[in-house]
Design goal:
rod-shaped, mainly alpha, single chain, about 350 residues
Length: about 350
């Protein structure tokens, strides 16, 4: 991605200076309008942005810092979307360039050249015809119906002497002068001839502009695919680092601390109350054991006495014996009653 970004930046600067800073052809960019200049500057800025991203990505990979990698992934995604948008805009300019150049040059020739207030347009069209060695927009015959030719005819008493073409359409000598002005601009001359340029200027300008524009489009495509590749490698690297550990939020942390504090208090209270319960059980246990022992002894004594009475019981006809037996039975029931 570093090579692609650096190459796109260098290509953008080269095209800008080759077209904009040319003394004879610098105004051609005005024919295409601001959109061509914007596409050129976008390619330069996108290339610089990719170079900066490479430096950030190098730091993120060396440190293996998750947050830096996430920021790098987000910025590469932005660069991917931006390069796609700039590429589509550049190709849109490329496919509309031929019609734009034809329309602009035709308007310059037919309506603007040589008229008052259009000095910049006149100078631009003269420089285009001299530097590209062409004449007219689509043909040298475009001048025959132009406003400039109509104004020239008004300036001559004999309209047949009025020039039909500007002198910038003439073939120049090595010294930079028209080789034959009469055969080049006179209405009675036979055209086309060897003293006038035959090529249309729209084709010349289009051939000069469409290749740099196509290079800008290819640079945008390269930046887009390099950003896609970088997104894939970064996502794979993030996947190898594993899932992100989520830290508790401040409210959740506070609730967790409160619950832990309450659990610790409950455990403390339970540990404090447990010895008291053990002491109370230890105090009450001797009394209960003593009562159980006395109860068991009384029951055993009552059962033993009952057996003795049953063995020594007289006959049922003896009144005294019955009285004695009932007395013993009453005493045994009293002894068997629990305390």
């Amino acid at each position: 991605m570093l090579v692609v970004g650096g190459g796109a930046t260098a290509l953008g600067f080269w095209i800008y200076y080759a077209i904009r800073m040319d003394e004879e052809r610098g105004g051609i960019m005005d024919i295409l309008g601001f959109i061509y200049l914007f596409a050129n500057l976008c390619t330069i800025s996108e290339g610089i942005f990719l170079v900066v991203l490479v430096l950030l990505g190098t730091i993120a990979i060396c440190t293996m810092h998750r947050c830096t990698l996430i920021w790098y992934f987000s910025l590469v995604m932005v660069a991917c979307v931006a390069s796609l948008a700039f590429t589509l805009m550049t190709f849109w300019v490329f496919f509309r360039m031929e019609s734009t150049v034809n329309t602009a040059l035709t308007d310059y020739v037919q309506k603007d050249y040589g008229l008052f207030g259009n000095e910049e347009t006149t100078q631009l069209l003269d420089s285009i015809q001299m530097s590209f060695r062409c004449c007219g927009s689509k043909s040298y015959e475009d001048w025959h119906s132009s406003e400039w030719y109509k104004m020239q005819r008004l300036g001559y008493f004999d309209q047949s002497e009025a020039p039909i073409h500007p002198e910038t359409c003439c073939v120049l000598t090595p010294e930079g002068q028209p080789s034959n002005v009469t055969e080049c601009v006179h209405i009675n001359a036979v055209y086309p001839n060897r003293f006038i340029h035959r090529e249309p200027c729209s084709e010349k300008v289009y051939d000069w502009l469409h290749w740099p524009t196509l290079y800008l489009g290819f640079a945008g495509v390269a930046m887009f695919f390099s950003a896609i590749f970088e997104l894939g490698t970064t996502s794979a690297l993030l996947r190898t680092l594993g899932p992100l550990e989520q830290k508790p939020r401040p409210i959740e942390k506070q609730l967790l601390t409160t619950s832990l504090h309450s659990e610790s208090e409950d455990s403390r209270c339970s540990t404090k109350e447990r010895p008291k319960q053990i002491k109370t059980q230890s105090k009450n246990s001797p009394k209960n054991s003593t009562l159980d022992k006395n109860k068991n002894k009384a029951n055993a004594k009552a059962q033993k006495q009952h057996k003795m009475n049953m063995n020594n019981r007289p006959n049922g006809n003896d009144a005294e014996g019955g009285y004695v037996n009932s007395a013993f039975r009453h005493e045994a029931e009293e002894q068997a009653t629990p305390l």
